[in-house]
Amino acid sequence: MAQLPEPTWAVSVAVSCVFALQALLYHARPAFGQDQREVRAKALIEAAAVRHAETRKAHPLIEGLFRSLPGALMAVNYCADDETRAETTALIVSSIEHAREGGIADAVFLNILLEITPPHVVVAAVVPHAGPDGRLAGLLQDADNPVRKHIEGQAPQGPAGAPDFRHYAAYLFSQSPQEPAAVLVEHMFRSDPGQALKVFMDLELLMKHPLARMDKALPSGISPLKRLLYMEHVVGDVLWHERHGIRIEPMRAEAARAELAKGAAHAMWWARLYVAEILVQHPEFQTPELVERLKADKHELVRLAITRPEREGQ
């Protein structure tokens, strides 16, 4: 029996195949009818597979990769109806599960899948399974996970930077605003409270004032949102000084505490969740009265956020 090549060789071959397939796929999506696109895409994929036939025979990992690749490409690039979308979701979830087991070919395949799948499709597939008891439990909490980095617009390699929540916002807007996915909301506010707050402000505007934008002059009648925008600015300014080691004037810190106290009494639960996360992540803003008020909050996510240090033994 022939000796198998080293894993590093397998990965390099697979990656080179990926680039070839991606180039072919780019030309496989003209503005024809769907049937014509599928025929052409299948032909190009088969041609690429034939070109690398000898390579595939050399290693069973690469053989398995190419066996499953055509179906994956077709499902992701032409997911138009509910049935195909369901198949795509199942493919994404199972691929993530397999890659977590540490297989080389599975990891390469997942990278291919992420490259050719729009982030909003990945979000819709992942979030329902990302809860504590889900098949993808812990994925959103892992800052180095390639799926999370793909969704949040970060480089696959290197340290995690500031997340991009645009695709989360699109997913939340498509769901019931009264009952958003708790695991996603918790992740957003825990990883970047300020950006999460702005996302929920934008969603509120889209639902009640579709033509308004948070980065423009806000229409009259929504002063509560204006107050939140000002609160985030004041608190964010203090945190910016703190992050860069610049002296914070006492008046700035006091102004931030005053804004957080107002935010803790806001009618919107997600505004109070922002306050809770800021207090947990920056204890210097805490006061006993404010913490106790949030511990008694009527929304579960707010109570869970403010009591997290106690529950996790921090």
Notes on the protein architecture:
With 314 residues, this protein is mainly α. The chain is 67% helix and 0% strand. The protein has two domains: 1-117, no CATH class; 192-314, no CATH class. Helix 1 (7-26) packs antiparallel against helix 2 (34-51). The longest helix has 21 residues, at 223-243. Mean pLDDT is 75; it is low at 1-11, 18-34 and 74-80.
Task: Describe this protein with a few key phrases.
single chain; 314 residues; mainly alpha; 2 domains; elongated
Strand content: under 5%
Number of helices: 17
Shape summary:
elongated
End-to-end distance: 55 Å
What is the number of domains? 2
Task: Describe the main β-sheet briefly.
Answer: none
Order of helices and strands: HHHHHHHHHHHHHHHHH
In short:
With 314 residues, the chain is mostly helical. The protein is built from 17 helices and no strands. It folds into two domains: 1-117, no CATH class; 192-314, no CATH class.
Topology of this protein?
Blueprint: H1 7-26, H2 34-51, H3 53-58, H4 60-77, H5 82-100, H6 104-116, H7 119-126, H8 146-151, H9 166-174, H10 182-191, H11 193-208, H12 223-243, H13 250-263, H14 269-281, H15 288-295, H16 300-306, H17 308-311
